[in-house]
Amino acid sequence: MKNKEFNFEKGGTFIIAELSANHNGDLEVAIETIRAAKRAGADAIKLQTYTADTLTIDVKNKHFLIDHGTAWDNMYLYDLYKTATTPCEWHKKLFDVAAEEGLICFSTPFDITSVDFLEQFNPPYYKIASFEIQDIPLIEYAASKGRPMIMSTGIATKEDVALAVETCRKAGNDDITLLKCTSAYPVEPQDANLLTIPALKKEFGVRVGFSDHTLGIEAPVVAVTLGATVLEKHFILNKEIGGPDAHFSLDEKEFTEMVKAVRKTEKLLGKVSFAVDEKIKASRKFSKSLFIVENVKKGEKITNKNIRSIRPGNGLHPKYLKDIMGKTFSEDLEKGTPLEKTMFN
Description:
This protein has 345 residues and is α/β, with parallel strands linked by helices. It contains twelve helices and ten strands. Helix 1 runs parallel beside helix 4, helix 1 runs parallel beside helix 10 and helix 9 packs parallel to helix 10. The termini are far apart.
Protein backbone atom coordinates (compact mmCIF):
# COMPACT_ATOMS: atom_id res chain seq x y z
CA MET A 1 0.00 0.00 0.00
CA LYS A 2 1.37 3.38 -1.02
CA ASN A 3 0.48 6.37 1.13
CA LYS A 4 0.39 10.02 0.25
CA GLU A 5 2.62 12.49 2.02
CA PHE A 6 1.99 16.13 2.76
CA ASN A 7 4.26 18.53 0.89
CA PHE A 8 5.51 20.88 3.58
CA GLU A 9 7.63 22.73 1.03
CA LYS A 10 4.49 24.10 -0.64
CA GLY A 11 3.41 25.71 2.58
CA GLY A 12 0.03 25.47 4.23
CA THR A 13 -1.00 23.70 7.39
CA PHE A 14 -1.16 19.91 7.66
CA ILE A 15 -4.48 19.30 9.43
CA ILE A 16 -4.83 15.94 11.18
CA ALA A 17 -8.12 14.54 12.43
CA GLU A 18 -7.35 12.30 15.41
CA LEU A 19 -9.66 9.28 15.51
CA SER A 20 -8.36 8.06 18.89
CA ALA A 21 -11.12 6.17 20.72
CA ASN A 22 -13.94 8.01 19.00
CA HIS A 23 -15.10 4.90 17.17
CA ASN A 24 -16.48 3.63 20.50
CA GLY A 25 -15.63 0.06 19.57
CA ASP A 26 -17.65 0.08 16.35
CA LEU A 27 -15.83 -0.44 13.04
CA GLU A 28 -18.62 1.17 11.01
CA VAL A 29 -18.44 4.26 13.19
CA ALA A 30 -14.67 4.37 12.59
CA ILE A 31 -15.21 4.14 8.84
CA GLU A 32 -17.87 6.83 8.79
CA THR A 33 -15.66 9.04 10.96
CA ILE A 34 -12.92 8.84 8.34
CA ARG A 35 -15.37 9.80 5.61
CA ALA A 36 -16.65 12.69 7.74
CA ALA A 37 -13.06 13.88 8.35
CA LYS A 38 -12.62 14.13 4.60
CA ARG A 39 -15.82 16.15 4.26
CA ALA A 40 -14.65 18.42 7.07
CA GLY A 41 -11.47 19.28 5.19
CA ALA A 42 -8.84 17.28 7.06
CA ASP A 43 -5.63 16.34 5.27
CA ALA A 44 -5.10 13.21 7.33
CA ILE A 45 -6.70 10.77 9.70
CA LYS A 46 -4.59 9.44 12.57
CA LEU A 47 -5.13 6.20 14.40
CA GLN A 48 -3.70 4.88 17.66
CA THR A 49 -2.07 1.45 17.65
CA TYR A 50 -1.86 -0.47 20.90
CA THR A 51 -3.57 -3.10 22.97
CA ALA A 52 -4.27 -2.88 26.66
CA ASP A 53 -1.64 -5.57 27.20
CA THR A 54 1.10 -3.75 25.26
CA LEU A 55 0.39 -0.45 27.03
CA THR A 56 0.04 -1.61 30.63
CA ILE A 57 -0.82 -4.65 32.76
CA ASP A 58 -4.11 -5.82 34.19
CA VAL A 59 -3.54 -4.97 37.83
CA LYS A 60 -6.11 -3.32 40.09
CA ASN A 61 -4.10 -1.45 42.68
CA LYS A 62 -3.60 2.23 43.47
CA HIS A 63 -0.73 2.58 40.99
CA PHE A 64 -3.03 1.81 38.07
CA LEU A 65 -6.10 3.75 39.22
CA ILE A 66 -6.69 7.09 37.45
CA ASP A 67 -7.28 9.84 40.00
CA HIS A 68 -5.86 13.03 38.53
CA GLY A 69 -9.00 15.09 38.04
CA THR A 70 -9.75 13.83 34.53
CA ALA A 71 -12.89 12.53 32.84
CA TRP A 72 -11.42 9.05 33.28
CA ASP A 73 -11.02 9.17 37.06
CA ASN A 74 -11.82 5.98 38.99
CA MET A 75 -11.01 3.82 35.96
CA TYR A 76 -8.05 1.47 35.94
CA LEU A 77 -5.57 1.97 33.12
CA TYR A 78 -6.07 -1.51 31.69
CA ASP A 79 -9.84 -1.08 31.53
CA LEU A 80 -9.58 2.34 29.87
CA TYR A 81 -7.17 1.11 27.21
CA LYS A 82 -9.19 -2.03 26.58
CA THR A 83 -12.21 0.19 25.90
CA ALA A 84 -10.32 2.77 23.83
CA THR A 85 -8.14 0.56 21.64
CA THR A 86 -8.48 0.46 17.87
CA PRO A 87 -8.32 -3.28 17.11
CA CYS A 88 -5.39 -4.39 14.99
CA GLU A 89 -7.72 -6.28 12.68
CA TRP A 90 -9.42 -2.98 11.76
CA HIS A 91 -6.26 -1.26 10.58
CA LYS A 92 -6.14 -2.50 6.99
CA LYS A 93 -9.75 -1.55 6.40
CA LEU A 94 -9.22 1.91 7.91
CA PHE A 95 -6.08 2.53 5.86
CA ASP A 96 -7.99 1.42 2.74
CA VAL A 97 -10.97 3.66 3.45
CA ALA A 98 -8.67 6.63 4.03
CA ALA A 99 -6.97 5.95 0.70
CA GLU A 100 -10.35 5.78 -1.04
CA GLU A 101 -11.22 9.16 0.44
CA GLY A 102 -7.89 10.70 -0.55
CA LEU A 103 -6.82 11.12 3.06
CA ILE A 104 -3.35 10.51 4.43
CA CYS A 105 -3.52 7.79 7.08
CA PHE A 106 -0.94 7.05 9.77
CA SER A 107 -0.85 6.10 13.42
CA THR A 108 0.66 6.52 16.84
CA PRO A 109 2.47 3.34 17.90
CA PHE A 110 2.70 2.97 21.65
CA ASP A 111 5.33 0.25 21.72
CA ILE A 112 7.88 -1.44 19.46
CA THR A 113 5.55 -4.29 18.45
CA SER A 114 3.08 -1.68 17.20
CA VAL A 115 5.79 -0.17 14.98
CA ASP A 116 6.45 -3.60 13.50
CA PHE A 117 2.74 -4.12 12.92
CA LEU A 118 2.30 -0.72 11.24
CA GLU A 119 5.22 -1.20 8.86
CA GLN A 120 3.07 -3.41 6.62
CA PHE A 121 0.94 -0.34 5.78
CA ASN A 122 3.91 1.78 4.71
CA PRO A 123 2.78 4.73 6.88
CA PRO A 124 4.11 8.12 5.78
CA TYR A 125 4.82 9.22 9.38
CA TYR A 126 5.13 7.96 12.91
CA LYS A 127 3.55 10.00 15.69
CA ILE A 128 4.89 9.77 19.23
CA ALA A 129 2.26 10.59 21.83
CA SER A 130 2.84 13.02 24.67
CA PHE A 131 3.05 10.35 27.33
CA GLU A 132 5.58 8.36 25.27
CA ILE A 133 8.05 11.25 24.90
CA GLN A 134 10.22 9.58 27.56
CA ASP A 135 10.08 6.17 25.88
CA ILE A 136 13.48 6.53 24.26
CA PRO A 137 13.67 2.91 23.02
CA LEU A 138 10.35 3.40 21.21
CA ILE A 139 11.45 6.71 19.68
CA GLU A 140 14.77 5.23 18.60
CA TYR A 141 13.09 2.23 16.98
CA ALA A 142 10.41 4.25 15.20
CA ALA A 143 12.96 6.80 13.98
CA SER A 144 15.18 4.01 12.64
CA LYS A 145 12.48 3.17 10.08
CA GLY A 146 13.35 6.38 8.25
CA ARG A 147 9.87 7.84 8.29
CA PRO A 148 9.23 11.46 9.34
CA MET A 149 8.68 11.73 13.07
CA ILE A 150 5.94 13.82 14.68
CA MET A 151 6.28 14.10 18.46
CA SER A 152 3.98 15.73 20.99
CA THR A 153 5.57 17.49 23.94
CA GLY A 154 2.66 17.42 26.41
CA ILE A 155 4.38 16.17 29.55
CA ALA A 156 7.93 16.87 28.43
CA THR A 157 10.52 19.03 30.08
CA LYS A 158 12.93 20.87 27.83
CA GLU A 159 15.46 18.14 28.58
CA ASP A 160 12.95 15.45 27.57
CA VAL A 161 12.38 17.17 24.22
CA ALA A 162 16.09 17.57 23.64
CA LEU A 163 16.70 13.89 24.34
CA ALA A 164 13.86 12.81 22.02
CA VAL A 165 15.17 14.99 19.20
CA GLU A 166 18.72 13.80 19.78
CA THR A 167 17.52 10.19 19.73
CA CYS A 168 15.89 10.66 16.33
CA ARG A 169 19.00 12.29 14.91
CA LYS A 170 21.28 9.61 16.27
CA ALA A 171 19.06 7.09 14.51
CA GLY A 172 19.77 8.94 11.27
CA ASN A 173 16.40 10.67 11.16
CA ASP A 174 16.31 14.46 11.05
CA ASP A 175 12.79 14.81 9.63
CA ILE A 176 11.16 15.89 12.88
CA THR A 177 8.08 17.88 13.80
CA LEU A 178 7.46 18.86 17.41
CA LEU A 179 3.89 19.54 18.45
CA LYS A 180 3.22 21.91 21.32
CA CYS A 181 0.75 20.10 23.51
CA THR A 182 -0.69 20.42 26.99
CA SER A 183 -1.64 17.06 28.47
CA ALA A 184 -4.95 18.03 30.02
CA TYR A 185 -8.36 16.99 28.74
CA PRO A 186 -9.62 19.58 28.08
CA VAL A 187 -7.01 22.35 28.33
CA GLU A 188 -7.96 25.69 29.84
CA PRO A 189 -6.93 28.67 27.65
CA GLN A 190 -4.45 29.98 30.21
CA ASP A 191 -2.64 26.63 30.13
CA ALA A 192 -2.16 26.41 26.36
CA ASN A 193 1.05 28.52 26.31
CA LEU A 194 1.11 28.78 22.53
CA LEU A 195 4.14 31.08 22.58
CA THR A 196 6.11 27.87 23.08
CA ILE A 197 5.54 27.05 19.39
CA PRO A 198 8.09 29.50 17.92
CA ALA A 199 10.41 28.76 20.86
CA LEU A 200 10.47 25.05 19.95
CA LYS A 201 11.34 25.88 16.36
CA LYS A 202 14.15 28.21 17.38
CA GLU A 203 15.56 25.91 20.06
CA PHE A 204 15.55 22.64 18.13
CA GLY A 205 15.62 23.65 14.46
CA VAL A 206 12.62 21.51 13.49
CA ARG A 207 9.14 21.97 12.06
CA VAL A 208 6.58 22.84 14.70
CA GLY A 209 2.88 22.34 15.19
CA PHE A 210 0.13 22.06 17.75
CA SER A 211 -1.71 19.08 19.20
CA ASP A 212 -4.82 20.70 20.60
CA HIS A 213 -6.93 19.65 23.55
CA THR A 214 -8.64 23.00 24.13
CA LEU A 215 -12.34 23.42 23.50
CA GLY A 216 -13.36 25.31 20.39
CA ILE A 217 -11.35 26.37 17.35
CA GLU A 218 -9.56 29.54 18.46
CA ALA A 219 -6.33 27.92 19.65
CA PRO A 220 -5.49 26.21 16.31
CA VAL A 221 -5.95 29.52 14.49
CA VAL A 222 -3.62 31.31 16.91
CA ALA A 223 -1.12 28.45 16.58
CA VAL A 224 -0.96 28.95 12.83
CA THR A 225 -0.17 32.63 13.29
CA LEU A 226 2.73 31.56 15.52
CA GLY A 227 4.25 29.28 12.91
CA ALA A 228 2.50 25.94 13.40
CA THR A 229 2.60 23.93 10.17
CA VAL A 230 0.88 20.86 11.66
CA LEU A 231 -2.40 20.82 13.57
CA GLU A 232 -3.85 17.78 15.32
CA LYS A 233 -7.35 17.83 16.75
CA HIS A 234 -9.53 14.99 18.07
CA PHE A 235 -12.44 14.32 15.74
CA ILE A 236 -15.74 12.58 16.43
CA LEU A 237 -18.62 11.64 14.18
CA ASN A 238 -21.24 12.56 16.74
CA LYS A 239 -20.66 13.59 20.34
CA GLU A 240 -23.83 11.83 21.38
CA ILE A 241 -22.14 8.45 20.91
CA GLY A 242 -19.91 9.34 23.87
CA GLY A 243 -16.61 7.67 24.56
CA PRO A 244 -13.37 8.46 26.42
CA ASP A 245 -12.41 11.42 24.22
CA ALA A 246 -15.82 12.76 23.18
CA HIS A 247 -15.80 15.70 25.59
CA PHE A 248 -12.83 17.45 23.99
CA SER A 249 -13.31 16.37 20.37
CA LEU A 250 -14.78 18.36 17.47
CA ASP A 251 -17.67 17.04 15.42
CA GLU A 252 -17.91 17.45 11.66
CA LYS A 253 -19.50 20.90 11.76
CA GLU A 254 -16.98 22.24 14.29
CA PHE A 255 -14.01 20.70 12.51
CA THR A 256 -15.18 22.18 9.21
CA GLU A 257 -15.35 25.61 10.82
CA MET A 258 -11.84 25.13 12.19
CA VAL A 259 -10.46 24.16 8.79
CA LYS A 260 -12.11 27.16 7.15
CA ALA A 261 -10.73 29.48 9.82
CA VAL A 262 -7.22 28.03 9.44
CA ARG A 263 -7.28 28.30 5.65
CA LYS A 264 -8.48 31.89 5.89
CA THR A 265 -5.72 32.61 8.40
CA GLU A 266 -3.14 31.21 5.97
CA LYS A 267 -4.39 33.62 3.32
CA LEU A 268 -4.28 36.51 5.77
CA LEU A 269 -0.71 35.68 6.77
CA GLY A 270 0.37 35.40 3.14
CA LYS A 271 4.10 35.97 2.82
CA VAL A 272 6.65 38.64 3.63
CA SER A 273 6.34 41.11 0.78
CA PHE A 274 7.09 44.76 0.21
CA ALA A 275 6.08 44.55 -3.45
CA VAL A 276 3.50 46.97 -4.80
CA ASP A 277 0.98 45.15 -6.97
CA GLU A 278 -1.44 46.75 -9.40
CA LYS A 279 -4.17 47.10 -6.78
CA ILE A 280 -1.82 48.93 -4.44
CA LYS A 281 -0.50 51.08 -7.28
CA ALA A 282 -4.05 52.13 -8.05
CA SER A 283 -4.64 52.94 -4.40
CA ARG A 284 -1.52 55.09 -4.17
CA LYS A 285 -3.38 57.89 -5.92
CA PHE A 286 -5.15 58.41 -2.60
CA SER A 287 -1.86 58.98 -0.80
CA LYS A 288 -0.54 62.47 -0.13
CA SER A 289 1.63 64.62 -2.40
CA LEU A 290 2.58 68.28 -2.82
CA PHE A 291 -0.10 70.50 -4.35
CA ILE A 292 -0.46 74.17 -5.05
CA VAL A 293 -3.23 75.28 -2.72
CA GLU A 294 -3.63 78.88 -3.88
CA ASN A 295 -3.02 80.72 -7.16
CA VAL A 296 0.65 81.76 -7.56
CA LYS A 297 2.61 83.97 -9.95
CA LYS A 298 5.95 83.41 -11.66
CA GLY A 299 8.77 84.55 -9.33
CA GLU A 300 6.67 84.13 -6.18
CA LYS A 301 8.35 82.22 -3.35
CA ILE A 302 7.20 78.80 -2.23
CA THR A 303 5.74 78.89 1.28
CA ASN A 304 3.69 76.69 3.58
CA LYS A 305 0.76 78.86 2.60
CA ASN A 306 0.80 78.10 -1.12
CA ILE A 307 2.16 74.54 -1.04
CA ARG A 308 0.80 71.73 1.15
CA SER A 309 1.01 67.98 1.44
CA ILE A 310 -2.53 66.79 0.67
CA ARG A 311 -4.42 64.00 -1.03
CA PRO A 312 -4.36 62.81 -3.84
CA GLY A 313 -0.93 61.47 -4.75
CA ASN A 314 -0.43 63.05 -8.19
CA GLY A 315 2.17 65.61 -7.19
CA LEU A 316 5.73 65.69 -5.95
CA HIS A 317 6.63 63.42 -3.00
CA PRO A 318 6.04 65.11 0.40
CA LYS A 319 9.64 64.35 1.40
CA TYR A 320 10.71 67.36 -0.71
CA LEU A 321 8.58 69.88 1.19
CA LYS A 322 11.33 71.25 3.45
CA ASP A 323 13.87 71.34 0.62
CA ILE A 324 11.77 73.52 -1.68
CA MET A 325 10.76 76.14 0.86
CA GLY A 326 11.96 79.56 -0.34
CA LYS A 327 12.46 78.54 -3.96
CA THR A 328 10.57 80.51 -6.64
CA PHE A 329 7.90 79.46 -9.07
CA SER A 330 8.96 79.43 -12.72
CA GLU A 331 5.44 80.04 -14.04
CA ASP A 332 1.94 81.12 -13.07
CA LEU A 333 0.01 78.23 -11.53
CA GLU A 334 -3.55 77.69 -10.39
CA LYS A 335 -4.80 76.34 -7.09
CA GLY A 336 -5.25 72.55 -7.28
CA THR A 337 -2.27 71.92 -9.57
CA PRO A 338 -0.01 69.01 -8.55
CA LEU A 339 3.51 70.32 -8.02
CA GLU A 340 6.32 69.11 -10.30
CA LYS A 341 10.06 69.81 -10.22
CA THR A 342 9.83 71.84 -13.45
CA MET A 343 7.54 74.39 -11.78
CA PHE A 344 10.17 76.03 -9.55
CA ASN A 345 13.86 76.95 -9.53
